[in-house]
Amino acid sequence: MRSDAYYQYRGGHLYCEQVALADIARRAGTPCYVYSAAAIVDRFAAYDRAMAGVPHTICYAVKANSNLSVLRLLAEAGAGFDIVSAGELFRVVKAGGDPGKTVFSGVGKRADEIEYALEQGVHAFNCESADEMRLIDAVAARLRRPARVAFRVNPDIDAQTHKYISTGLRENKFGVNIADAPALYREAQRYENLRVTGVSCHIGSNLLKVEPMLEAVDKVLALVDELRSGGLAISELDLGGGLGVAYRDDEREPEIESTIAALCARASGRGLTLHVEPGRSIVAAAGVLLTRVLYRKSNGDKQFVVVDAAMTELIRPALYEAWHDIEPLRLIPERGNVVADVVGPVCESGDFLAKDRSLANVAPGDHLAVLTAGAYGFVQSCNYNSRPRPAEVLVEGHRWREVRARETFEDLIRGE
Ligand SMILES: *Cc1c(COP(=O)(O)O)cnc(C)c1O
């Protein structure tokens, strides 16, 4: 296993900070998500150090992990937030986050969501179309509250990531074509209730290469210069999120502090306030999904490890062909390894956590940890097959507590 300051084996037992994960599995049950508070706060601090020299806000992308306790940790550390729905803003407010440090992204904001965001006093809308601009102006007029707006521009850059999480190409639904942006900014000047002060971009998620990010910054800076020379007062630049994480040993992730410092250096000297919107790079490695082995079976020469977690808890392998390392909570070296598919109970052939994977030769009743599962894990869980969603646990030093209870059967039928 990749060694990590937050998840380590001690005496053959896997720990999160100072807590043995087997204790959590036994007492909270499985499947269950576990997050290290220190891992989250430390990664946020790396962003903060990288940006210390420029006026900035780090807007944590709520969609990566929206648990209230995670949001509260980040709010207390000074984070702002990047939201993509009114529901996410509701969570930010409930967690004590500052709407004034929150930006509203997303390609399909509804009028009621724009209204709620204005009432709560969000900092800005990252606007993605001319239609949306007109709607924001109309809602702002009705509420008599001017709306700060940045256009999310699409710099037409291949982020070199999985096709479902690449967003910066012209063929993607996101943003406005960077070539069309100047005309849009000029049009926006005519709307009385808009304050168009920013430019934003976000080219994709899980970016492992720095070059596309630098290329995007350069293109967007050229746009800022062009808009300014046309008389527009652009004071804010939002560089989006997307920094990748290494899910497997042969991947190298961009180091947060040096990468973000390099991006900021590119953009410095123009008097811009910088925003970033990191999600995955803050929470992914901070979380694991605990699961219990139900059965072993083989069909001919193929081996299966059937576990109690499924695509309903972690859909990333099925949706993005994602790889997650899977490690036993207790090391028993004499048992050796097996090559197997790790599968859940859901009635879909796409329901797997790993395929043809060499892993510990586990037996029924053993516990496993699916690593690097803190981002886009629980938030994409669902009730398919009428499976109650799992518990979530937050570890702080030698203490741990449930920060979301496992759903009950009653939860499953609420509202029906
Ligand atoms: C998803 C998203 C993010 C966060 O992306 P990560 O890859 O998790 O850092 C940031 N900004 C916008 C607009 C997004 O859609």
Description:
- The protein has 416 residues and is of the alpha/beta class.
- The protein folds into two domains: 7-30 and 286-413, Lyase, Ornithine Decarboxylase, Chain A, domain 1 (Beta Barrel), CATH 2.40.37; 37-279, TIM Barrel.
- It has twelve helices and 21 strands.
- It has helices spanning 21-28, 37-50, 68-76, 86-94, 111-120, 130-143, 181-188, 211-229, 256-267, 280-283, 316-320, 409-413; strands at residues 7-10, 13-16, 19-20, 32-36, 56-61, 80-83, 102-104, 124-127, 147-154, 176-177, 194-200, 236-238, 273-276, 287-299, 302-307, 326-328, 337-343, 352-360, 367-370, 391-396, 399-404.
- The strands form three sheets. Strands 4, 14, 15, 16, 17, 18, 19, 20 and 21 form a nine-stranded mixed sheet that branches. Strands 5-6-7-8-9-11-12-13 form an eight-stranded parallel barrel, surrounded by five helices.
- Helix 2 (37-50) packs parallel to helix 9 (256-267).
- The model has no long low-confidence stretch (mean pLDDT 96).
- Pyridoxal-5'-phosphate binds at residues 61, 63-64, 82, 84, 105, 202, 205-206, 240-243, 277-281.
* Strand segment tally: 21
Give the CA-based shape: elongated
What would you call the structural class?
alpha/beta
Radius of gyration: 22 Å
The top level CATH class name of the largest domain: Alpha Beta
Which regions have little confidence, pLDDT < 50, spanning 5+ residues?
none
The helix count comes to 12
CATH architecture of the largest domain: Alpha-Beta Barrel
| CATH homology superfamily name of the largest domain | Alanine racemase
Distance between the termini: 44 Å
Proportion of residues in β-strands: 25-35%
